[in-house]
């Protein structure tokens, strides 16, 4: 089963930046890493995949649905965190999660249990009654991740999810994502830190200049060297075309 499928997907902004002719699929039960340097197009691609941006070309399907036309159907099926965690600053961590659970279709009778489980999973229980605006940057990130994961979505899209996390938080995140992939979720995670995702990824896709330029085997030797060789070769090829 395919969780996410993009075909010839593209959107170009003024000046030529954007993403171009993306063909990509993230299968159920797979943890798929999207790797690229800062500015490679990771966040833009994820916004297109989720329907946050309208594509100018190509198509996207999430669990068989067009994300820009099936918001109600996809709400319970998708969990995401793009760039910055969003939370109501005057609400506690627990209240934010309870609201998020309801918005994602968790039945009212199960909200309290759902929230308690994810607070424990990401070690947030001790901060559960702290207002979100008073949380540290790392704990706000944990709160955003908890909101994205708590309803057990079948498709998970996380943009640089380890940003601001301490080492303990990174470990908890890895374990949470591996569990969900093993339970059948399609998981897409972006990063510019290759070593972070190589430990858990089933598939690594490399993006550069808004284009998919290749893939890497997560457990291959000299992975970082192979990544930079791909990127540098693509940069040279584009420079030659431009010249």
How is the biggest beta sheet arranged? Answer: 6 strands, mixed
In CATH, the architecture of the largest domain is 3-Layer(aba) Sandwich
- Strands ordered across the widest β-sheet: 5-6-7-3-8-9
Number of structurally distinct domains: 2
Order of helix and strand elements from N to C terminus: EEEHEHEHHHEHEHEEH
Provide the CATH superfamily of the largest domain.
P-loop containing nucleotide triphosphate hydrolases
Given helix and strand content, the structural type is: alpha/beta
- Global morphology: globular
Determine and state the CATH class of the largest domain: Alpha Beta
Helix content: 25-40%
> Which residues sit in consecutive blocks of at least 5 with pLDDT less than 50?
none
Number of strands: 9
Entry keywords:
single chain; nucleotide-binding; 24% strand; AAA+_ATPase; ABC_transporter-like_ATP-bd; Rossmann fold; transport; 3-stranded antiparallel beta sheet; 6-stranded mixed beta sheet; alpha/beta; 243 residues
Note down, in words, how this protein is organized.
With 243 residues, this protein is an alpha/beta fold. The chain has 2 domains: 1-77 and 154-214, Rossmann fold; 82-152, no CATH class. Helices cover 37% and strands 24% of the residues. It has 8 helices and 9 strands. It has helices at residues 42-50, 71-74, 93-103, 111-121, 137-149, 167-182, 194-198, 223-242, and strands at 2-12, 18-27, 31-35, 57-62, 78-81, 155-159, 186-191, 203-208, 211-216. The strands form 2 sheets. Strands 5-6-7-3-8-9 form a 6-stranded mixed beta sheet, with helices on both faces. Strands 2-1-4 form a 3-stranded antiparallel beta sheet, with helices on one face. α6 links the parallel β6 and β7 (186-191). α3 (93-103) packs across α4 and α3 runs parallel beside α5 (137-149). The longest helix has 20 residues, at 223-242. The chain is globular and about 60 Å long. The mean pLDDT is 94. Pfam families: ABC_tran. This is ABC transporter domain-containing protein. Residues 4-234 form the ABC transporter domain. It comes from Homoserinibacter gongjuensis. Keywords: ATP-binding, Nucleotide-binding, Transport.
């Amino acid at each position: 089963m395919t969780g996410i499928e993009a075909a010839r997907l593209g959107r170009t902004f003024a000046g030529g930046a954007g993403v171009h002719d993306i063909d990509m699929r993230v299968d159920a039960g797979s943890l798929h890493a999207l790797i690229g340097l800062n500015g490679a197009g990771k966040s833009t691609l994820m916004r297109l995949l989720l329907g946050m941006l309208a594509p100018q070309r190509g198509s996207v399907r999430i669990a068989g649905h067009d994300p820009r036309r099936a918001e109600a159907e996809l709400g319970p099926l998708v969990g995401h965190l793009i760039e910055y965690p969003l939370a109501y600053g005057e609400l506690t961590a627990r209240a934010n999660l309870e609201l998020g659970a309801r918005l994602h279709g968790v039945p009212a009778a199960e909200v309290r249990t759902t929230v308690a489980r994810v607070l424990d999973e990401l070690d947030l229980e001790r901060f559960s009654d702290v207002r979100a605006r008073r949380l540290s940057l790392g704990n706000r990130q944990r709160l955003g991740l908890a909101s994205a994961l708590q309803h057990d979505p079948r498709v998970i899209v996380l943009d640089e999810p380890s940003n601001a996390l301490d080492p303990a938080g990174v470990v908890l995140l890895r374990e949470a994502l591996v569990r969900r992939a093993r339970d059948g979720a399609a998981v897409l995670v972006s990063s510019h830190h290759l070593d972070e995702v190589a430990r858990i990824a089933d598939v690594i896709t490399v993006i550069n200049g808004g284009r998919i330029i290749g893939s890497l085997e997560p457990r291959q030797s000299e992975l970082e060297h192979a990544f930079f060789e791909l990127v540098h070769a693509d940069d040279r090829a584009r420079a030659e075309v431009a010249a």
